[in-house]
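Hi there,

I know you've been waiting on this one. I reran it after we fixed the sequence typo, so this is the corrected version. Both the input and the resulting structure follow.
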Amino acid sequence: MTRSHAIAAILATLILAPAGCTPSPSATRPGSTDSPAPTVTATAPTSSSPTPAPPVTPPPVRPASPVPTSAATAIPSPTGTPSPVASATTPPVVTTLTVPAQTTRETTVKTAASLELEARLDATTAGDPAEVMQVRLNGQLIRQAVTNRSLFPVRGDGSTFNLYNPESSRWAVLFSPDYVAHDRAASGTKQITSNSGQAYRYVWDVSAQKGTAGTMTLRIDNATVDRAPLLLRITQR
């Protein structure tokens, strides 16, 4: 091959080579004494580096809501409607005591800051009050005013009576067949219109008499002279 032919071959190679390819001097044309023909080496096109994504900030973790400790918390039912849960509050304990006429009876009650009881003189119809009940707690007379109602109850005819007699230290109790008659309008003039629903109920603050023991001694005296028993319902909370 003549020198002119070799130059023409190299130019043809350069013209036909794709973009990005460079001739390599190591390739030699067989049978040629001239300079070796350049070898075409493919060079991969460079691509720009991808732009890194911005860091993702995780959402703040909200603290779990405290679980209510109350036993009365509503629990969701399968239908999504809250189901009421029975309260863990201990129900009051109600005990009964019968004190015959001209008699004294004793019982023990749980130590508490208040003393609560209902009292009536057993009768067939709603009658008048009688000052017959004397109350002692741990040997001390209960003389302080009740906290649940007036010391001067008002009757259906507008008249009043003394709930407590300080001279005898006795409390007035109504003659009644049950614990609701005097709270009803059907009793007419015998109805107790003041402090609705409290006609038979006595509540005292006994902080000064309760002592430090686990129980208190309750003594009830019935001074009635007409043989009517004094009936009591004592509530302990």
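Quick highlight: The longest strand covers residues 114-122.

Best,
R. S.
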